[in-house]
Amino acid sequence: MTEAELRGLPIRTESGVGWLQVASIEDVREAEGPLDAVERAAAAPDSALPASARHLAVRIGSVKIGVDVPPEMEEPLKKLYRDFLWDGETAYTIVVKVAKPMELERFKTTNAYNVPGSGVYYLFRWDFIARVDLNTRRAVILVPMIELHMCVDSIIRVTTSFSALLTGGVLLHSSAVAAPQGGVVFCGVSGSGKSTTAALSRELPGHTTLTDEMALLEPGPDGYTVYGTPFIGEAGISTNIAAPLRAVMVLTKAKANAIRKLSPAVASMELLKVTLCFGQDADACRIAMDAVLGLIAKVPVARLEFLPDVSVWRTIDEYLG
Amino acid sequence: MSTSDSRKYVQNPAVVSREVATETIIMVPMQRHLNALNATASSVWAFLATARTVDEVVAHVTATFAVKDPAAVREDMVALLEDLEKKNLIVPAD
What is the mean pLDDT of residues A65-91? Predict the structure, then answer.
């Protein structure tokens, strides 16, 4: 190491944009009533579910989640998850209950709160409050109106992300394409070109877009697999297809196409920024970091500098070989 | 922090860190920030697993990286320790 290198920028700090707003103690006090309500609802036995409750199940990668919902939510959710419905056993259960309005109006975005080390996470927003218990693999959501079935989607995302992290996988805010050489994941902050890059592959033979919003990456004995998910973005692309993962690319718009290898630390930072993790206590940090480090140890992570036209796919296909 | 500072500093026990090749990634639970340390800062970070003074850190870096200008190292290490403390990655060892 030279003395010039020694004097280089020693610390790089970035915001973890893939992470939720952490509830302050004032937030928690303000949400105390709804928190008590969801705690009581979670304590009720399954036998307390109304006879009219409907059960449906989804499978995303290896994550299998059962959902018990009021009958009015059944059809909208079946439509939303039509390609991901599952009729086998499930590892996680989500119970949805309709409750009285909960005075959560001031929480415009989702807040997360947990007692560190408990494995229990509370999430609340203006339209729902949820208690996710990783110990029992059971979540309870209280919603004030029967029409709010998209709240269930939020908790299915949360459950999928925790389930993935606990088994060494990650749910990434990213697009993904199954190319003839294998799966490629494109990530970056909003506006970086995730959907554009995936969309540019549509006319190419043998290329299928798995998702334009969120990809699930899971480790296996022969490497990682990338899965499409039902979590749709603006383009609404959701394909229940898996591909062996060949590369993860961090997007940067540029005046020419190029692919540059990232150092392990930079790759880790970039992926942690787009990893969905709904807890921010030390346990959640550890599982997120370990999952991302496991990924970068097995899968090349590169920066893709790109022009937003189909020429970028020549560069990508050449890279994949 | 000054050159005569005899105060000791140590890794904040609340943070979560992982070595990545020669670098280090650190997260402070309940904050929205990720921190990456380069090889030099990572070496200092690992050294601060035990409480150390500025002088001890300077001696460690000077020896580890065979630096010829210890005065420049002191200036850099004071700045680094201040930054690490500001980011809540290290704390005074009382």
Answer: 94
Chain B residues with CB inside 8 Å of A12's CB?
35-36, 38
- What tokens appear for A270 in the block? 């970039």
Domains belonging to chain B, first-starting first, are 9-89 (3.90.930)
From A279's Cα to the closest Cα of chain B, the distance in A is 8
Q: Which of A56, A135, A60, A121 is nearest to A95 (CA)?
A: A56
> pTM of this prediction?
0.90
How far is the alpha carbon of A23 from chain B, nearest alpha carbon, in Å? 9
| Fold of the A170-320 domain | Phosphoenolpyruvate Carboxykinase; domain 3 (3.90.228)
d(CA A239, CA B63): 56
ipTM > 0.90 for the complex: no
Interface contact flag, A280 B31, Cβ < 8 Å: yes
Residues B16-41 as b/e (b if ≥16 CB within 10 A, e otherwise) read bbbebeebbbbbbbbbbebbbbbbbb
